[in-house]
Automatic annotation (TrEMBL):
The active site is at residues 88, 91, 114. Gene3D superfamilies: Cyanate lyase, C-terminal domain, lambda repressor-like DNA-binding domains. PANTHER family: CYANATE HYDRATASE. Residues 75-147 form the Cyanate lyase C-terminal domain. Catalyzes the reaction of cyanate with bicarbonate to produce ammonia and carbon dioxide. Its EC number is 4.2.1.104. Keywords: Lyase. This is Cyanate hydratase. The gene is cynS.
Length: 147
């Protein structure tokens, strides 16, 4: 089954069963953000994890099997993105990316932040002036190697 069909089946079941990402994450003992990433087709579940999700969401056998296939990452969003929320992250990197790069190099040296050895967290911060979104991107620093 194609990842897009699996994602559609997952989102439909999630709505039908009135589940949150955190509910699904608890089933496989993973973080909410990683679970959402995986079930939206951008990471791979173990067979055991896929079976637990399949049981919880009442997924087809094809969808469960699809969850264990290594995905083509980064192919689900056109560039530049058109969805307003995703576009804002793109805009943040366009505006603040050079400063982020400069500060990382100043603090760590010549290298990159890993998107493989990486964790992400999304929190809601209640504020009387309007709720705030706290996004934490936590990646291992990988220095460029000399040879």
């Amino acid at each position: 089954m194609e990842k897009t069909k699996t994602t559609s089946e997952i989102l439909s079941a999630k709505r039908k069963l009135n589940l949150k990402w955190t509910d699904i994450a608890q089933t496989i003992e993973r973080s909410e953000s990683w679970t959402a990433t995986a079930l939206l087709g951008q990471a791979t579940l173990s067979t055991e994890e896929a079976e637990k999700v399949g049981t919880l969401l009442e997924l087809s056998n094809e969808a469960v099997e699809s969850l264990t296939v290594v995905p083509y990452r980064g192919t689900t969003v056109q560039m530049p993105p058109t969805d307003p929320l995703i576009y804002r992250f793109y805009e943040i990197l366009l505006v603040y990316g050079p400063a982020i790069k400069e500060l990382i190099h100043e603090k760590f040296g010549d290298g990159i932040m890993s998107a493989i050895d990486y964790e992400m967290d999304i929190q809601k911060l209640e504020d009387p002036k309007g709720d705030r979104v706290l996004v934490t991107l936590n990646g291992k620093f990988l220095p460029y190697k000399k040879w």
